[in-house]
Amino acid sequence: MIRAWRTRSVNDLSLEMLVTFNIGVALWTVYGLALGELPIILTNSITLGLALILLVFKLRGQRFSR
Question: CB-based contacts of 7: which residues, under 8 Å, 6+ apart?
């Protein structure tokens, strides 16, 4: 996210990697919910939110700005 923010581009990230990463983090979030473990839920929810932003920008195929 930091590199994408600095370069204003997600061209360096592959769509397949972003989709796979988002699925993995979503599953970890579900796992945290099943266990009722707040640290797992919070950290993975934040990570999922940031990763979803990157995925949306990648799918839109646009550079982003502040």
Answer: none
DSSP 13-26: S-HHHHHHHHHHHH
Domains in the chain, CATH or no CATH each: 2-60 (1.20.1280.290)
Q: What is the Cα–Cα distance from 61 to 6, expressed in whole angstroms? A: 17
Q: How far is 58 from 65, CA to CA, in rounded Å? A: 14
Does the pTM surpass 0.85? The reply is no
**For residue range 43-64, what is the model confidence (pLDDT) as tens digits?**
999 999 999 999 988 888 755 5
